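Worked example

This section walks through a single chain of length 573. The input is the sequence exactly as stored; nothing has been trimmed or padded.
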Amino acid sequence: MCGWSFGIAQDNSTLLDRKISLQITNVPLDVVLLDISSQGGFTFSYNADIIDRDRKISLSVFDKSVKSVLDILFEGKMQYSVKGKHIILTLKPQKKVVSERVVKGIIYDAASGNKLSGTSIYDKRSSISVISDAEGRFTIKQKTKEVSTQTWKLNVSKANYRDTIIEVKHDENSPVSIYLNTLKTQRQDDSLMMDSINKSIESLLFASMLNETEKANMLNITDTLRRKVQIGFVPFVGTNMLLSGNTVNDYSVNVLMGYSMGTQKLEVGGLINADRGNAGKVQLAGLGNIVTGSFNGLQTGGVFNTNFRDVKGLQLAGVANANLSSMQGGQIAGVVNVNLKQTNAFQVAGVANVGLKNFKGTQLAGVLNVTLKEMQGMQIAGVVNYATTVKGSQLGFLNVSDSCSGVPIGFLSFVRKGYHKFEISTDEVMPLNVSLRTGVRSFYNIVNAGMQFKHMDTISWSFGYGIGTTAKLSNTWSLNLDLTVNQLMTGNRINNFNPWGKFAVTVDWRVAKGISLAAGPVLNAFWVKTSDPDYEIYFKQIPPYTFYNERDSQTNEYTASMWIGGKLAIRFF
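Given that input, the structure is written out below as tokens.
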């Protein structure tokens, strides 16, 4: 080793601009730095771990700045800062160079040696995936800003084959051969059938937008990938790429339409959210939500919500909520709610609520409620309520059931195993009356009509509606309380509304199976308009006698009459 050096003092210059000269051969780096600091009149400060002090240096420079000499020594990898009489040496931040690592290979069946096409090869960390071609070949690429010295871990999956993980060295250049073993047994349980149904429906829903890689991944990959956040534009165009259908996200934002294995906390979609597996706790979609697994939480769709498995929570839809399995919670829809299995909830629909199995709760619909099995609770509809078995109440224009242990309230209720009576009767006004009673013993509807032949040239009619209740006194005796209102008419004319109200208390005696006799008093109240063209010749003569007969003092248009009459009847069924 030999060398010489000398410095030129420049007190007014910055430390890095001071001039030095070196003529050295094979001198350790730490000695060179001491020489430079001695010439420049300063000291160096640095972390010993970032400098190879034993590195031999050979250099010849004359009247060069300290900075330019340091750049030569460290090949531009160091940055310098001045503090007092110290120059501090630190490493420059490494520029991340985008590089690409590539793995090529061939997939084989381990038993037969045949090449396997349609096999999924994917990286769980980056969500990059490819499938093998018809010759079993594949090429998977990953762009990275890190020059990794670690192996690349890849997952390999194919339907009916055992999942495999391979590790490829970073400098591996030759194609890799991967052998897959077939599964010895296949699952044979209810979940397999549901999975098959789900996959079939998924194919129908998304076939037009799935490419071969996406279809293969959906069928091949049984492993579930997990991500905190997913942002997508349409299915498979987003942060989870071609593995979106195999990924469960905590949070998912879908600009137009999203597709994933499931969402655990929040999913928001401009049009549609679609989840292959379970979802919750909140789903919001401009058009609709489709979940082929179960859902737990709040589900809101501008048009529809559709779930293939159990739902617990609240569903809100502009048009329809449809669930293929059980539902617990609440459903509100602008048009219809449909559940194919057990329902324990309240339902509100603008048109109809439909349940194909047992229902427990309340159904409220503008037109129709239907429960094909047992209904426990309340049905309220603007037109029709139907349930096979009712353990509760029905309120609607028409109520229909096979059996009812509660009370159906409506204009007309038909309970197949309930109360049905066809009656033929006579009273002091109408010698011939027919009526139909239908409902249950505690509350039934009455539709009736009567005829009078007082004037041979003109038949007088009455028709009306009422309600009633019956109490069983013994095996053969019962008591009926009936309240009806009838309209009277002559010929085919109805000139005015002239109501005839009747409250009848009758005792019913069953003389044989399906036949009974009834009799009892009737309180009559009749209001008639005195200006009616038929008043003098017909309506005035209706009451045979009265204990009350008064003209309306305010309008002087109506006359009110009351009397006690009676009825005799024979009833069938």
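What to look for: The chain has five domains: 2-91, 99-180, 196-213+221-299, 310-417, 419-572.
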